[in-house]
Amino acid sequence: MKTYNITLLPGDGVGREVTEAARRVLSATDELFEYDIRFTEKPIGGAAIDATGDPLPSDTLESCIASDAVFLGAVGGPKWDGGTRRPEEGLLGLRKNMGLFANLRPVKVTAATIAHSPLKAEIVRDVDMLIVRELTGGAYFGAKTRDATSASDLCIYTVEEIERVARVAFRAAMRRRNHVTLVDKANVLETSRLWRDTVTRIQKAEFPRVALEYVLVDTAAMRLIQKPRAFDVVLTENMFGDILSDEASMLPGSIGLLGSASLGAGGPGLFEPIHGSAPDIAGKDLCNPTGAILSAAMLLRYGLGRTDEADAVEAAVAAVLASGRSTTDLGGTESCSSFARAVVDALRHTYGMSANRTHWGMSTA
Ligand code: NAD
Ligand code: IPM
Ligand code: MN
Description:
Elements: E1 2-11, H1 14-32, E2 35-41, H2 45-52, H3 58-65, E3 69-74, H4 87-97, E4 102-108, H5 121-124, E5 128-134, E6 144-146, E7 151-153, H6 159-174, E8 179-184, H7 190-206, E9 211-216, H8 217-226, E10 233-236, H9 238-248, E11 261-263, E12 269-271, H10 290-303, H11 307-322, H12 336-351
Parallel strand pairs: 1-2, 1-3, 3-12, 5-10, 8-9, 8-10
Antiparallel strand pairs: 4-5, 4-11, 6-7, 11-12
3-isopropylmalic acid binds near residues 76, 88 and 242.
């Protein structure tokens, strides 16, 4: 039987709770389908600062690199504000060290979530977009300076950094509706003008069948609320993608609904919900684990190539939401753990009966 090694990085705050939810769901798929998952848990972020003084201990990084895939909950929290090391350094260091330059953040409004949107149903119905956020460049990683009276964060991009993430976006568009919106600030920023030139050249040379549209980031923020169905694949730089994806999470109605995959040129991917450690609700079993569970589905799909099993997890999440059960961020009464249990039950209910796995074209013999 195939064995997969997964490093779990629960991190801080609700990161711990949603990682447990994702672990339970992944464990249920391993019971139902033909593989073994071995989990190794390692500290990152504030928990790692407390344990070792380092937000990304070398032992954690080595375990991630040696894994088939990595799952992360969230890092950060007020406890570590003002310290010499920040929890967020751990996550940024992990993305950089693992070469995870493309962050895929799908945003979908379904029949089950449409009622939870703060926007009108006719605006958000059938929204289905994929934000492709560049993840290892820009102001996040440029040189930083600080003296008594000023500070700077250098925003720098190379042509190669733009080309490789552009290809990810165009390839994704070819499996969707063949449309890419490049979001930038080319009316002001030189880096954005390099993005436009580079992405246009790649489109013309390699993806002529994919339509490419340019939208300035301020207008994009508006259009996400005004006409969100107009977006298919949204390609953008690191910080714009960070901000716009939190905004986009309000289309289905909660930041707790969105998952993500952070991928590189090969090697293990990192799968993480888009939300943070939510210190205001941490430790109360209140947070929504959906984004984490959908990140686990992306881990199965993109990290392990287990498409059927990823589909099964997504269908189980959809079934639970469609049954009207939800956590308090969506107005429901489920806890993080009871919602995760409901997803596991839905999986077992649907797939448990195929004990001989003939449904999957596999034999237990
Ligand atoms: P946050 O995403 O943690 O929380 C923003 C708001 O959304 C809060 O009101 C929170 O309760 C709510 N929320 C977040 N996740 C939720 C969930 N799963 N279910 C229900 N509600 C949820 O952002 P913040 O408060 O600005 O940041 C808190 C800390 O998290 C900071 O230290 C920040 O750096 C860190 N952070 C980490 C990540 C990550 O690890 N990927 C992402 C974002 C923020
Ligand atoms: C995210 C987070 C991180 C980011 C922080 C915690 C460094 O907001 O994953 O979206 O800005 O990338
Ligand atoms: Mn963010």
